[in-house]
DNA sequence: CGCTTCCTTATAAAATCCTTAAAAATGGCT
DNA sequence: AGCCATTTTTAAGGATTTTATAAGGAAGCG
């Protein structure tokens, strides 16, 4: 979830852009008056989308005014297709230049590409059966939202997913999660499995199979 | 001066692009055969420019193959102007998508914009979650005013923000802030976290999440 | 000395984990 | 098919662990 500020004097354009970007789960603020945009205000956003042609202050001027103090990507929306204007825009520190008329698909793709770059980091992630594990953040993500796993639940879940297809007894799972001293009641693991399944159910996925008389395993060929 | 690799089967195009980018002082390598491009080789470049339509392996396939191991910006050159292809390209982790025919001015402007962004990162200021860190001044700014952090509070806060998304135990945080001998009571860290949160609360932002049983982390805007 | 910062301690609050017990499901048996 | 023994699932409650909060004292610094 990222915060985006859109500056355009055309109110129709604002609502159009807002609707498009909100589909990707972003938080959109809009502003029709460029002169009202101060550097300090921009610092809370992850990306700025500026129209070039506006009465009063235009997008170029606004960019020039705030660039020094704003670190996030700045994208221009423009009807001017001339190279000179485009080069000028990039020269002011812009990160992209989207020519009108643009498709909403392109707008979304470009905005997301810039936001993604901001958070692109060497993360150890694993995707299995519709669930994405961020091993650094110790978080599991399904669809658009983070699953509210507890530490134990996450650990069991990650271990199963990491060794998808392999069957683990309750004792093995307990040991894998809490180290060697597996002094735990097997039913404690069953309890966790139950909770995990309940939380996954909200996203209509159930990758954990029970092997009767043996234990549990993560389904290997995920039918997503 | 940056190193750029251009992959295109069209030799005329290669020399054209090379000439254009060399005007900006970049070092250009070219490659006509996509299958010959290995991830390890790409890691020495600051930017990759890939043609989409190539005999043998196309640009999309190449991107897919190397993206996980290559961290630099990847730009597509393409004649395909359809939205679907464009969205697909961005979906593969591309950073820009330049439609043929493009002007050399636009090409240069876009390439330079991406390269500039890369070097903007190692600057001494960082903006995350509504807080801007001035690492030189050791000051954190939220909204209009400087946060009254103590030295230790600032250090913990900066370390968390710098490694947004990653979970740190109290011991790790203490060590990260005071170096080697982490002979500190974990509850001292908890105390600092409390104070940090209290001071951030005035600006209605709370980017620090507690991962129960593990530690703390700075919330990362996850862009799926 | 007064001030800030940091650490410690103590207590309250919260969340998780485990245990227990009953209900449901499974597989094998006659 | 029907029944039984075993295993799994579900549910609820208390015990345990971890975190949040508050207050007091030691150490550094002007």
Automatic annotation (TrEMBL), chains A, B:
Keyword Transcription: yes
Taxonomy, superkingdom: Bacteria
Keyword Lyase listed: no
DNA-binding region(s) in UniProt: 123-220
One Gene Ontology cellular component annotation held by this UniProt entry: protein-DNA complex
Pfam families the record matches: Response_reg (PF00072), Trans_reg_C (PF00486)
GO MF assignments: phosphorelay response regulator activity; transcription cis-regulatory region binding
Secretion signal, residue range per the UniProt entry: none
OmpR/PhoB-type domain sequence ranges: 123-220
PROSITE patterns: OMPR_PHOB, RESPONSE_REGULATORY
Gene3D superfamilies linked: 3.40.50.2300, 6.10.250.690, Winged helix-like DNA-binding domain superfamily/Winged helix DNA-binding domain (1.10.10.10)
Role summary: May play the central regulatory role in sporulation. It may be an element of the effector pathway responsible for the activation of sporulation genes in response to nutritional stress. Spo0A may act in concert with spo0H (a sigma factor) to control the expression of some genes that are critical to the sporulation process.
Name by which UniProt lists this protein: Stage 0 sporulation protein A homolog
């Amino acid at each position: 979830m990222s915060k985006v500020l859109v500056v355009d004097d055309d109110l129709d354009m604002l609502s159009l852009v807002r609707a498009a970007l909100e589909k990707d789960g972003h938080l959109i603020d809009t502003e029709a008056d460029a002169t009202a945009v101060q550097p300090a205000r921009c610092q809370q956003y992850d990306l700025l989308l500026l129209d070039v042609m506006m009465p009063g202050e235009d997008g170029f001027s606004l960019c020039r005014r705030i660039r020094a103090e704003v670190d996030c990507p700045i994208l221009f929306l423009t009807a001017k297709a001339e190279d000179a204007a485009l080069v000028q825009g990039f020269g002011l520190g812009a990160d992209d230049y989207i020519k009108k008329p643009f498709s909403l698909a392109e707008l979304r793709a470009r905005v997301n590409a810039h936001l993604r770059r901001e958070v692109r980091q060497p993360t150890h992630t694993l995707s299995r059966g519709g669930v994405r594990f961020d091993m650094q953040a110790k978080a599991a993500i399904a669809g658009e939202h983070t699953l509210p796993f507890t530490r134990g639940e996450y650990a069991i879940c990650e271990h199963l997913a990491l060794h998808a297809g392999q069957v683990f007894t309750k004792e093995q799972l307990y040991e894998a999660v809490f180290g060697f001293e597996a002094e735990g009641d097997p039913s404690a693991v069953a309890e966790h499995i139950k909770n995990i399944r309940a939380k996954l159910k909200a996203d209509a996925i159930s990758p954990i199979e029970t092997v009767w008389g043996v234990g549990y395993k993560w389904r290997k060929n995920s039918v997503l």
